[in-house]
């Protein structure tokens, strides 16, 4: 770090000497007013009105430099946002891998239980079953108005009402009407 700062300091001093201190009447730079004229006039032969000289003057204008800096800042902002988005995606993928490993553990555990003959399926009977989700495949038959006829829905939806979700005094046709209305909302 100190070497870099020393290099910047030396380059700054040399740049100041080459551009702001006039040359004396002796030495290798006696025919030029400043040291940098040796490069521009002597080596590159850049005179006023030359195309390369005009381009060099245009590039060194403050407006052009400001435009380049704004463009670089925009590019840095874009790349930083892209990197943060990729970090977020990596975090999501890692979480997915964790869940997949848990799923694998669960499945392998159940496969080992099945192979040992210790598998017992337990149905939770206390849970209310949603008739729309647990319905068998209802045919896609529709009438002229685009509705599924009631006889098809009541034929394929076998539901026993539980006391917690429906009124115990309601008849079977009321339940069919409720199911039909619910099915119509979903589809």
TrEMBL record:
Top-rank lineage group of the source organism: Eukaryota
Segment forming the signal sequence: 1-15
UniProt keyword list: Membrane, Signal, Transmembrane, Transmembrane helix
Segments crossing the lipid bilayer: 55-78
Name of this chain's protein: Uncharacterized protein
